[in-house]
Automatic annotation (TrEMBL):
Protein name: D-malate dehydrogenase (decarboxylating)
Pfam family, one: Iso_dh
Cofactor(s), names only, from the UniProt record: Mn(2+); Mg(2+)
Domain Isopropylmalate dehydrogenase-like: 13-356
Annotated source species: Pseudogymnoascus verrucosus
Length: 376
């Protein structure tokens, strides 16, 4: 952030990495809305720099990112990411060489995934009223099942062996538990559900449970319960109103958050933040969905997940009031029935984006140019 003497408004530098599939379509929509919002609100500036790090770049150069990519990213206040994955590149290459290659070294160890049913949209849980499904899933984002430990031997032989070792360290489990309990404490219900699988996995998951109950002692005002991951899926579907903040391992939370997004109406509305809570490194914000090859280029990708992602980014940058305002605007557009096909509507990505920009204009009035004219 760099407010200058001439212009006291904070200015945030955002690195945008649209990457693959519908990533460029939804990030373009998100940047359009964020620029319109900042310009109209006129209390802070956003300065975007676009990076073309993608599977196309990989196919052309053999690398997703240049060698100094992390040094470059560290100069930004936040990173806005689209989705990575192409039909002709194996997923473990694309994911590890771009998204995880950013998240892991930048210590973005807390992955935050809020879910709620927007006004005007309908959950498949038809009787679930607005406000009854309002969760935040905290995903451990640095180790666990995605630690990258393992190997393959005797490739191609009938006795080929592969291992994928989950790593749980007390340090990382404790920091994510503290972050999750802190999150729960700051939400009205002050309730956390610790997801586990310690009945079957008797090492890492048992330590996970022990650390959770140790950390719980420091948060006496937070109500804690524990769920096995399989039973958790049924509770999410059958009793959504009994959940609020949820903390789970890298793999468990990955799966549960897709279920959460679908229960809220569509994966096309769900945001995610990859946070370095110490703020030593920039955090990265992205819609939860992937590159959606099946709808790429059709102009029907739901941009709402990216808009909500943008709101999460603004909150993290310290602009909570503005973020709440923008989310309310996006929800109002859904309420008017201007929605893409995945939410049951007929609007295109561009139509939803334009409707959000119009709503910004209607609610917040003057543009920056008009403000400047007014002050002359
Ligand atoms: P996906 O999220 O790309 O698509 C799943 C389904 O949801 C598809 O039917 C798609 O059309 C629909 N969908 C997704 N986003 C949508 C949106 N904004 N609006 C409307 N419909 C939407 O997941 P899938 O198919 O498993 O993965 C495709 C590729 O994306 C793979 O290469 C995968 O590795 C990658 N991926 C990347 C992620 C990331 O960059 N963080 C996350 C998930 C997947
Ligand atoms: Mg996922």
């Amino acid at each position: 952030m760099s407010p200058s003497l001439a212009d006291p408004r904070p200015s945030y530098r955002i690195a945008s990495i649209p990457a693959d599939g519908i990533g460029p379509e939804v990030i373009d929509a998100g940047v359009t809305v964020l620029k319109k919002f900042a310009e109209t609100l006129n209390t802070f500036d956003l300065d975007f720099t676009n990076f073309d790090w993608s599977s196309d770049t990989y196919k052309a150069t053999g690398k997703y990112m240049p060698d100094d990519a992390l040094t470059t990213l560290k100069t930004f206040d936040a990173i806005l990411f689209g989705a990575v994955g192409a039909p002709d590149v194996p997923d473990h290459i694309s994911l590890w060489q771009l998204r995880l290659a950013i998240c892991q070294p930048l210590q973005q160890y807390a992955n935050v995934r809020p879910t709620k049913v927007f006004r005007g949209t309908q959950s498949p849980l038809r009787n679930c009223k607005n406000g009854e499904l309002d969760w935040v899933i905290i995903r451990e984002n640095s180790e666990g099942e995605y630690a990258g430990h393992g190997g393959r031997s005797h490739r191609g032989e009938p006795w080929e062996t592969a291992t994928e070792v989950s790593i749980f360290t007390r340090h990382a489990v404790e920091r994510i538990m503290r972050f999750a309990f802190e999150t729960a404490k700051n939400r009205p219900k002050k309730h956390i559900t610790v997801v586990t699988k310690s009945n079957a996995q008797r090492n890492g998951m048992v330590m996970w449970d022990e650390v959770a109950s140790d950390v719980a002692k420091d948060f006496p005002d937070v109500l804690v319960d524990k769920m096995l991951v399989d039973a958790m899926t049924t509770r999410m579907v059958l009793k959504p109103e009994t959940l609020d903040t949820i903390v789970a391992t890298n793999l468990h939370a990955d799966i549960l958050s897709d279920l959460a997004a679908a229960l809220a109406g569509s994966i096309g509305i769900a945001p995610t933040s990859n946070l370095d809570p110490t703020r030593k490194n920039p955090s990265m914000f992205e819609p939860i969905h992937g590159s959606a090859f099946d709808i790429t280029g059709m102009g029907i990708a739901n941009p709402v997940a990216t808009f909500w992602t943008a709101c999460e980014m603004l909150t993290w940058l310290g602009e909570k009031e503005a973020a709440d305002q923008l989310l309310d605007i996006v929800e109002a557009v859904c309420e008017k029935g201007i929605m893409t096909k995945d939410l049951g509507g007929t609007a295109t990505t561009a139509e939803v984006t334009n409707a959000v920009c119009e709503e910004i204009q209607n609610r917040l009035g003057k543009t920056k140019a008009e403000h400047l004219e007014g002050s002359n």
